[in-house]
């Protein structure tokens, strides 16, 4: 379906359900499957770290309660060695756990970015009509990279802290359940504070990510259009526009910092409240000889270990909320379904001659604004059919529907009796060659761009296609020949050279159906003549649709249709249409006011 139609799930634009933190972690864990050995190593390290952190305060308690009162000098050096050994072992374990989780994190991010990139290729052309390139680039790069920090370090910290918190809380309850319960009474307030601030942080981080996408999109547009900007001396205007977008990003980041600056002191105050409880109530118990001083000191050390996860979480919450905001933007793309896709059980397209038939086709890009109305058209197999008409009459839409970039809302299109909706997209587009006025070339060599039509082509086929397109001469003039770098969008080539490469690429692909959309509209006379000769070779024996404003390019077409407001108003060959004196004659006389009518030309 085309834009404006079939928005079954997300309304007029794709809007996936918000990606919750739970769904974010679920997707991360799905991608972490198969890494169980590395995860097992990390988990063992977590347990060992928790045990060592539990042992160190016990050494402190034993020192205060036994070694000092009993003056056991011989145990001092072993005690110091035990502490240093435990610290060294902690460092080693933390290194192994961090390296393990970083490896898992990188693999997860690699898979997630791959999933996102593959899904972008599944989406239809209509999706890209409604999306900004810079925004999509930001989601694949910036948003995915934000998740990397969560997976590589924050998840490991959460796992370690969760295990440590549980073990130490149970031990403290065993030592003195009353004191521990008083201490734990502060934690619900911490969780409530975290929940309240977390929601606001996620909304703010989403604004940050959207502003980053705005900056990325503006940067992409200005860098690709730098010649236009300079030709209109619009540098100052674009700098102001970029500054406005950058300012929005700055202001969004400032809001996040303010939230974090307010959140962390509240958590710290609640932590100090816990310390005050331990000091006051613990001292009261010690003075009543219900607890030893060593136990109180150990209890304070355990309190620190118990509060460390809270402190860590108060910092990690920023990463989690930022990651959740980034994940929402990623999930929005992953949850978008293509509106043009292979139907269940779609068959391969098998062409006999390549006849294309439009039967009662209706199509609109936007609801209520039809481009084609009850449209009928036949492209006979092996013939050249031309479409002419005013701008906006629907000519390019016809070409897009044949390639199934969009699906019509009414009627159907068939090729050799096979409805397009019932054949696979790959087999359909594999039979179609497209040459347009706006040539798309990739940054790379001439060889790379030609092989896009047939990646496994031999050198002989490549050179034959270049000769047929009159491209071999200018290619040979380059020092590196077919290995010449042409720059981004073929910037190092002239318009005629780029067009001939496009034709050579199509010749190499050897399609049965060829669509020419204003293929010679922007060329000089010499280039146009060379390209017309190349096109004559390309079209021989193929079904061809030619879309043109310049009527000189379609004089030899087997059939010409005049399209106005989504309907065919005239059909015939060049001479027939001139004789009728209708819309085609009007268009012809506008372009060739001095040319004599066909019936008045002298016989040669």
TrEMBL record:
<dbReference type="InterPro" id="IPR017871">
    <property type="entry name" value="ABC_transporter-like_CS"/>
</dbReference>
<dbReference type="InterPro" id="IPR011527">
    <property type="entry name" value="ABC1_TM_dom"/>
</dbReference>
<dbReference type="InterPro" id="IPR003593">
    <property type="entry name" value="AAA+_ATPase"/>
</dbReference>
<dbReference type="Pfam" id="PF00664">
    <property type="entry name" value="ABC_membrane"/>
</dbReference>
<keyword id="KW-1003">Cell membrane</keyword>
<keyword id="KW-0812">Transmembrane</keyword>
<feature type="transmembrane region" description="Helical">
    <location>
        <begin position="158"/>
        <end position="175"/>
    </location>
</feature>
<feature type="transmembrane region" description="Helical">
    <location>
        <begin position="181"/>
        <end position="198"/>
    </location>
</feature>
<dbReference type="InterPro" id="IPR039421">
    <property type="entry name" value="Type_1_exporter"/>
</dbReference>
<feature type="domain" description="ABC transporter">
    <location>
        <begin position="351"/>
        <end position="590"/>
    </location>
</feature>
<feature type="domain" description="ABC transmembrane type-1">
    <location>
        <begin position="40"/>
        <end position="322"/>
    </location>
</feature>
<feature type="transmembrane region" description="Helical">
    <location>
        <begin position="76"/>
        <end position="97"/>
    </location>
</feature>
<protein>
    <submittedName>
        <fullName>ABC transporter ATP-binding protein</fullName>
    </submittedName>
</protein>
<dbReference type="GO" id="GO:0005886">
    <property type="term" value="C:plasma membrane"/>
</dbReference>
<dbReference type="Pfam" id="PF00005">
    <property type="entry name" value="ABC_tran"/>
</dbReference>
<dbReference type="GO" id="GO:0015421">
    <property type="term" value="F:ABC-type oligopeptide transporter activity"/>
</dbReference>
<dbReference type="InterPro" id="IPR003439">
    <property type="entry name" value="ABC_transporter-like_ATP-bd"/>
</dbReference>
<dbReference type="InterPro" id="IPR036640">
    <property type="entry name" value="ABC1_TM_sf"/>
</dbReference>
<feature type="transmembrane region" description="Helical">
    <location>
        <begin position="36"/>
        <end position="56"/>
    </location>
</feature>
<keyword id="KW-0067">ATP-binding</keyword>
<feature type="transmembrane region" description="Helical">
    <location>
        <begin position="266"/>
        <end position="284"/>
    </location>
</feature>
<comment type="similarity">
    <text>Belongs to the ABC transporter superfamily.</text>
</comment>
<keyword id="KW-1133">Transmembrane helix</keyword>
<keyword id="KW-0547">Nucleotide-binding</keyword>
<dbReference type="GO" id="GO:0005524">
    <property type="term" value="F:ATP binding"/>
</dbReference>
<keyword id="KW-0472">Membrane</keyword>
<dbReference type="InterPro" id="IPR027417">
    <property type="entry name" value="P-loop_NTPase"/>
</dbReference>
<dbReference type="GO" id="GO:0016887">
    <property type="term" value="F:ATP hydrolysis activity"/>
</dbReference>
<keyword id="KW-0813">Transport</keyword>
